[in-house]
Specification:
globular, about 75% helix, disordered N terminus, mainly alpha
Length: about 260
């Protein structure tokens, strides 16, 4: 086969690089899929940052932007592209990681190590995120909004405050560093180049994003301003319904 011939030729040219043929295909695919899904995740982060403010207008801005974005990215074609990019990015990332065992933390490339670690953290929350935003609304009839997140944070603070903070901060770092890495990787003629020097402005932007992320978690929990609670009862009923549907009350004793 022609592909097999190319793989053998590449392996002969680069004998000291294991699985060089796989990397030739995997790294560009991971970079391209990461940039594609980054368009979705960046909008999601902007939506979360909308919650930061000093009064209920930020709560309304959060819900308004979420509703507008929902109409966009829940279109069948757009959603299929986003889901495909996410799956491709995750699968290629896992495949690359399996070809580099023991390379999670390296002293000479701590940013890349943090990038992989935050990727694993985000991947762990994807299933729950889809369950909450796509599956349960169809079953309970309640559309996710500011008050639903607010209810989670206040009803189960020891679980959701650290979980949300870790996921938001991981999302900011993975987005900022991953965009730089993907662009440099796709522009490079070598498919094995490491990320070049990180500009100071990107470190500053990442720090600003993480700070905004932490403030957003506080705002969603009601720590920055008084939250308008005109439909908090509906949010509680939605959570109770979801707990019953998933049998969490029977299996884990979770009740509200």
């Amino acid at each position: 086969d022609e592909l097999r011939t190319i793989q053998v030729s590449l392996a002969a040219l680069f004998p000291n690089l294991p699985n060089v043929n796989a990397f030739c295909l995997l790294t560009p695919a991971q970079s391209a899929s990461g940039l594609a899904f980054g368009c979705f995740s960046s909008l999601h982060l902007v939506n979360i940052f909308q919650s930061v403010g000093r009064d209920f207008h930020s709560q309304n801005a959060f819900d308004g932007l979420m509703e507008g974005l929902r109409e966009l990215y829940q279109q069948p074609v757009v959603e299929a592209v986003g889901a495909g990019a996410l799956v491709a990015h995750a699968v290629t990332g896992i495949a690359i990681a399996r070809r580099r065992p023991g390379d999670l933390f390296t002293e000479d490339d701590i940013r890349a190590s943090l990038h992989r670690l935050t990727g694993y953290m985000l991947a762990s929350g994807v299933g729950l995120h889809v369950l909450q935003l796509r599956v349960l609304p169809r079953l309970t009839g309640y559309t996710p909004n500011f008050l639903l997140v607010h209810y989670y944070l206040n009803r189960f603070p020891h679980v959701f405050y650290p979980a949300f903070a870790v996921l938001v901060c991981s999302g900011v770092y993975h987005q900022c560093y991953g965009t730089l890495a993907a662009v440099q990787q796709l522009r490079s003629q070598s498919r094995f180049s490491r990320v070049g020097p990180v500009p100071y402005w990107l470190d500053g932007l990442t720090a600003l994003g993480i700070g905004m992320g932490l403030l957003s978690v506080l705002a969603l929990g009601g720590g920055l301003y008084r939250v308008a609670d005109n439909s908090r009862g509906a949010a509680a009923q939605s959570v109770q319904h979801a707990i019953q549907l998933l049998r969490l009350d029977r299996w884990f004793g979770i009740r509200i």
